[in-house]
Amino acid sequence: MLGITLKVWVHPISLGLERYLPIGIIGCGAIGSFIAKSVDSGIVPMMKIKVIYDRNIHKSEALASILKDKPKIARSFDEFLSEDINLVIEAASQEAVRAYSLPILRSGKDLMIMSVGALVDEKLLAEIREEAMRNGRRVYIPSGAILGIDGLRAACIGGIHKVILTSRKPPKAFEDDEYIKGIGLNLKDVTEPLLVFEGSARDACKLLPRSVNIASTISLAGIGVDRTLVRVYIDPTIDRNIHELYVEGEFGRFHVETMNLQSPSNPKTSLLAALSALAVLRSIIDPIKIG
Q1: Catalytic: 243?
Q2: What would the pLDDT profile of 100-111 be if each residue is shown by its tens digit?
């Protein structure tokens, strides 16, 4: 989380009233739709989706049509921003984070960022932090498709020497990927695990923005985008996304492997990434915080 809180919305439990937190979603693709349907079904209590926005109006209309609580479909970002909501969930793109984060915070709304790769830009990150503090808002960054973020944050206080993220994904996760096209790789030619990227988290997030969002999250929780090493493999021998996090520091060391099932609607995304967003939403509502 970034920034501080001066909340104007009062928790329903503290009032003993049946109230809900009104939220809006930007981006009606795989993750945005998953979050919307989950909130709509009651998996996240005391929240209601009031408005959704996607530059592709057909995606917004398709999503709204399957929700019980019919949200308003905003035709523009300005229309979206004018709605009386307390929390905006960005589930669109890094470009959306760059374009919309500051106006959202200035309008007095909290923000959840799913396209966290945009935050490798230190200038943007600093501006978001300053705007959140200036307006008494919070910015939530879910842990994403990997475990160990809580331990990494704790270890960072005592001092960390090394952070290595190794991601392995099946070929279909890289279909239509601009980086893979750029290096001239035909996915059909990959018959064994192939290292396609090794470098800093900064470069990983820029070159593979749809595949290694978690590199940015790990960097924010740990030792930064330039000291965090990332390795990315295309692996035709697996049918799921596998992320390994290795950390060494004054505390000792730990190694975490997460074998993720892919999102049914988007093989580039792990289901755990969407579930981590729901966990954050629940934590906002719950007065007891864990981790």
Answers
A1: yes
A2: 999 999 999 999
